[in-house]
Structures are given as structure tokens and as C-alpha cells.
Inverse folding.
């Protein structure tokens, strides 16, 4: 996985998330279950985008964008000197190292938290309930770890109404698989820690999970005011683990306000609606991962390329210029003496490692061979470094400009 793919995935998800956020506000959506489903779809798209881009599983659309240009340094200064290129590579290496260190630390934090909660759940004492409910002295307020409901050690002494309300809340988490979605959101935030939408998406999903579970308590005919007081009591004793859904950790003031306002509980979505939404996610994610490729200008039928038949190349967007050669070095002496400027459109084939296999000139101006722009363009192409992230043989076209500074 390359840094370019990670950055592209983060930007695409940011735009996709902004579109979904705007749609949810324009409609507007009042049912938190609908919003949960929408953001879960965005989370899956965020995790799938790097794979779609890396393996080129999305379509590529032709556009009328101009070809990449390698210009003479005397006009525009597009080719950096070796010292500057070395500094640029060093900076890129430092940034990649920083990314890997932070991502690794976040992943270690997630895994260590999972391991710690797994040990707590194993040591917890089961209660006599149909589902997996356990009590532990290490749990300060009710929580859900995957499909396991964890309660404080004194839960068996609680009044029946209090215990029933807590279990209704936690069972709603288990039914919706909120704990697993929270882990996915944390994994996504660890990979894309540099993207603000990754952290926002995690917090939003956790807040919505608590809201829908609160609605399950109210729907079970528990008093909203009494349950709000219960939330406030649990908020004074939060748990320290971040990999378990805890009743007292997320957005407590707004949840209490919603309960005191006696907002009617939202209706959960039927299973067919959820599966239909996830089916609709496939084309959305593929479209978000789609790329564009430049369409070169039309070439005359009498061009040199038409005279020499060559196999049709496979144009792959992942083939790109890494370190273009400086055209000034190869500027034809006769053309420079005559103060003639020109350009050539070159097509190169590269292997899976980005090594040059073949180069050919498709179009050159001026066409007079005495100026030597075609041979000079081929020298530029052969001394340029290419990249290929597609893992398949590909080709690309670009323009080499020879233009004297005035």
C-alpha cells in the first residue's frame, strides 16, 4: 500500500462523507437508525477504498485533461537539481516513518485494549440469564464487549427496574453488533489517523449507538426520567477501556436532554432495508474509487507512429513520472543554435516494477529531423524514473517540451 493510495482514499472518503452528511441534513433524517446505517456504509467504504485503488478494481474514465509535461528547466523550472530531489526523498521518507509509527502505536493500543477486556470478560462471573451477562469487580459501569454484557460486581443487588433498564440498553448493543462496529471504526482511525473524518466517524457511530440503545430502553416502557437519572449516576463511574461499549461514556448530556424531552423512541430498520442499503454501497464505493486518465490530442494519420505499426498498449493510471529527466541536458545542439523550440509526445511501456521497457515518439514538432527533437525526447524518456502501482505491465504518454528561455 503506497502513501499515494492512502492519501487518495482519505480524500475520496472525506468527499463522500461530506455528501452523505449534506444529504442527511437536507432530507432531513430524524431516525438515528437510518443515520447509523448511513455512517456504517461510509465506514465500510473507507476500509474498502484502499483495496479498490490498489488492485484497480474500479473503472477508469477517459477525460480531456492535458498530458503530463516534462519541460526545459529554463522555462518554468520543473526539474529539480539532484540535491533538491534528494532532500525531497528524505522528507518523504521521514513523513512515511512518522505515519507508520503513529499507526503502529494506535493499532497496538487497540489490540492491547482488546486483550485486556478479553481477560476481564474471562475472569468475570456469569449471571443466570439466557444471554451472556457477567459481573466483574473491574467493571465500574455497565458495558458491552462484543456479545458479552459486563456489569459491576454488585449488579445482583440492584433493584429489578434498574437491572432491567441496564440490560435492555446493553442487549440493544449486542443485537446491533455495536461493539464490533466500534472496533472497525477504531481500526479505520488507526489506519487513517491523519484524516479528520476517521475520528469524527468513530465518535459519531459511538454516539448514535448509545442513542439507539437508549431508545430501546424507552421502548421497553421504562420511565425516561428515571433512566436519565441512572445515566447520570453511571457517568460518575466511567470505565477505563475504550474497546467496550459503555453506557456512561458517550455524549451523556445530550442523551439525558433527549430523554427529559421525552422524544419518542425511533423504530429500528427491517433487515431487508439494511441489506438493501449495503447492496447499494457496492456501486457507490466503486464509483468513489474510480479514476480518470488523460486522453491525448488527436494525431494526424500521416504521423510517424502511424507508419510503424505497434501493438495497442494498455494505458494504466498507476503508471506515473517519479523523477523526470531534465530536457536541457538533451536539447539538440542544432535547434539550440538556431533558437528553435519544439515538443514531442512520447509513449513509454514499463514493467510491473516501473522499469522502462520501450519508448517511442508519437508526434514531434517541428517535424524536420535535422533539429533532432525526436531523438532528444527519447533520451529524456530513457533517463526518466517511472512508478507503477498497478502490478501489471502498463504504459503512459507524456509531452517533452524543448523551449529556450527568453
Amino acid at each position: 500500500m503506497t502513501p499515494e493510495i492512502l492519501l487518495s482514499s482519505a480524500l475520496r472518503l472525506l468527499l463522500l462523507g461530506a455528501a452523505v452528511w449534506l444529504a442527511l441534513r437536507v432530507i432531513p433524517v430524524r431516525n438515528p437508525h437510518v443515520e447509523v446505517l448511513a455512517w456504517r456504509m461510509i465506514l465500510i467504504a473507507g476500509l474498502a477504498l484502499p483495496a479498490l485503488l490498489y488492485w484497480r478494481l474500479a473503472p477508469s474514465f477517459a477525460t480531456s485533461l492535458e498530458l503530463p509535461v516534462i519541460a526545459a528547466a529554463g522555462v518554468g523550472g520543473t526539474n529539480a537539481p539532484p540535491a533538491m530531489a534528494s532532500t525531497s526523498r528524505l522528507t518523504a521518507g521521514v513523513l512515511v516513518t512518522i505515519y507508520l509509527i503513529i499507526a503502529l502505536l494506535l493499532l497496538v493500543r487497540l489490540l492491547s485494549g482488546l486483550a485486556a477486556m478479553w481477560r476481564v470478560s474471562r475472569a468475570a462471573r456469569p449471571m443466570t440469564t439466557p444471554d451472556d451477562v457477567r459481573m466483574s469487580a473491574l467493571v465500574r459501569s455497565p458495558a458491552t464487549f462484543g456479545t458479552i454484557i459486563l456489569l459491576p460486581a454488585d449488579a445482583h443487588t440492584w433493584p429489578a427496574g434498574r437491572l432491567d433498564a441496564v440490560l435492555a440498553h446493553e442487549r440493544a448493543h449486542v443485537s446491533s453488533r455495536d461493539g464490533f462496529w466500534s472496533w472497525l471504526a477504531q481500526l479505520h482511525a488507526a489506519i487513517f489517523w491523519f484524516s479528520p473524518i476517521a475520528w469524527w466517524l468513530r465518535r459519531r457511530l459511538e454516539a448514535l449507538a448509545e442513542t439507539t440503545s437508549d431508545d430501546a430502553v424507552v421502548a421497553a416502557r421504562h420511565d425516561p426520567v428515571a433512566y436519565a437519572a441512572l445515566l447520570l449516576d453511571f457517568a460518575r463511574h466511567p470505565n477505563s477501556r475504550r474497546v467496550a461499549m459503555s453506557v456512561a461514556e458517550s455524549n451523556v448530556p445530550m442523551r439525558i436532554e433527549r430523554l427529559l424531552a421525552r422524544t419518542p423512541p425511533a423504530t429500528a430498520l427491517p433487515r431487508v432495508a439494511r441489506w438493501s442499503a449495503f447492496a447499494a454501497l457496492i456501486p457507490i464505493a466503486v464509483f468513489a474509487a474510480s479514476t480518470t486518465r488523460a486522453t491525448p490530442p488527436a494525431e494526424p494519420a500521416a504521423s510517424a507512429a502511424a507508419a510503424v505499426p505497434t501493438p495497442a498498449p494498455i494505458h494504466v493510471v498507476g503508471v506515473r513520472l517519479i523523477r523526470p529527466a531534465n530536457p536541457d541536458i538533451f536539447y539538440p545542439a542544432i535547434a539550440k543554435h538556431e533558437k528553435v523550440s519544439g515538443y514531442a509526445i512520447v509513449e513509454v511501456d514499463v514493467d510491473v516494477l516501473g522499469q522502462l521497457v520501450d519508448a517511442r515518439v508519437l508526434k514531434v514538432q517541428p517535424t524536420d529531423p535535422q533539429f533532432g527533437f525526436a531523438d532528444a525526447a527519447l533520451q529524456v524518456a530513457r533517463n526518466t524514473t517511472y512508478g507503477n502501482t498497478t502490478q501489471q505491465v502498463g504504459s503512459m504518454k507524456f509531452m517533452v517540451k524543448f523551449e529556450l528561455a527568453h
Notes: Residues 298-402 form a domain with the TolA/TonB C-terminal domain fold (CATH 3.30.2420.10). Residues 34 and 269 are 7 Å apart (CA to CA).
